[in-house]
Known about the structure:
Layout: H1 4-13, E1 28-30, H2 37-47, E2 50-53, E3 71-76, H3 79-89, E4 95-98, E5 112-118, H4 125-131, E6 132-143, H5 149-156, H6 168-177, E7 180-194, H7 197-206, H8 220-233, E8 236-249
Helix pairs in contact: 1-7
Amino acid sequence: MAGFDELIALGSAADVTGWDFDWVADRATEERPPWGYARLLAERLGAASASLDLDTGGGEVLAEATAFPPTAVATESWPPNAAKATALLHPRGVAVVHTEQHGPLPFADAAFDLVTSRHPVAPRWTEIARVLRTGGSYFAQHVGPASGFELIEFFLGPLPEARRGRHPDDEVAAAEAAGLDVVDLREARLRIEIRDVAAVVYLLRKLVWWVPDFTVERYRERLGELHELIGRDGRFIAHSTRHLIEARRSG
Length: 251
């Protein structure tokens, strides 16, 4: 294993723009959900007439689709990701719109028959319902409760109240309150193996909400402890949670 300082430098220098995790592929692994979101998304895009992908990141998952409807739009709030998504998706006929994270969606009522998202930051259910046509669907894969919390709590300590956040029961209730009918909900708990501290630095720089005040300087001692733990055990084990949700606007 490389030395601590070398690994810290590698993780600190890695490019964290976009929404792929190729850089960390040899340093950490995450079990994938059993339903195959990208394949299911492509099927739905092929049957839609107007689609909207929310929080598209760098557009990597959306770009896996082989075909898009005549009207296809994606939104992203972080400018570096919006620029990356534009370069990737515009040649495919998908318009990328920069939006404010908590603002209204800049689209007309009933503009889309399909709204999608892979790992939205915070689903805006009333806005999703507003832009969907009657009979249209929201189809998404969400991050679930306590995802990655073994790593998060290694740095921040126990967070019992935060573990309830993103619970699928709460999201179903919010979707139904906005006027949507939830027609499918599937849940998965998935194993994460982290094999060096460079991956930890990369992940905490990219997933900034995990440890919001993270810097290498602030957490260097704790990173050193984690480096020793991985050296002893060969890996650090955490778990992610995901749920697939489909909701329709019936009226």
